[in-house]
Amino acid sequence: MNDTEPDRRIVDLDRATALGLLASAPFGRIVFMRDALPAVRPVNHLVEHDDTVIVRTGVTSKLTTAVGGNSVVVVTYEADDIDPIDRLGWSVTVTGLARPVTDADRIARYERMLTPWVDKTMDSVIEIETTIVTGIRLIDCGRTNHHNAPRSDTT
Predict the structure, then answer these.
(1) In the chain, which residues have pLDDT < 50?
(2) What is the spatial distance between Cα 146 and Cα 108, in angstroms, rounded to a whole number?
C-alpha cells in the first residue's frame, strides 16, 4: 500500500449484524443448482423472524423448479452494499435449506409484502433457513463512521 491509498480493512460481522444488514438491502442474489450447475438470479427479499429469508418467484421459474414440490435444497443468498468508488461497504451471504411456502395465509402475507420487479406472475414463495451466515464490512481505518460499523482490528 502506498501513502495515497487509504488503510482499508475487512471486519467480520457477527450473525445478528449480518442479518440486520441483509434485512436492510432491497435485493440480493440467490444461487441454486440448475442442470447440475450453479445458477444465480437477482431477487428482492425480506428477512422474517430475524433469520429466515423469503423470496417470491414464478411457478414456472427455474428457481421454483429447482426447489420444487415439498423437497428442500441447499441454496446460497447474497446481498451487499459496496460503493464502487470508495470501495467500502458490506457483503452478507447466507447458506441454508430452501423450501416452498405452502401455507395459504403466509403466501398471501408475503405477496403483500414483496412486490415483483417485473410484469410477470410471481405465484410462488420460497423460504430459506439461514444455517450458515457470514458477513464482512470493508472499512477505511482513517474514517470514524463506517456506516455504523463496530470498531475492530479484525482483518
Answers:
(1) 1, 60, 148-155
(2) 38
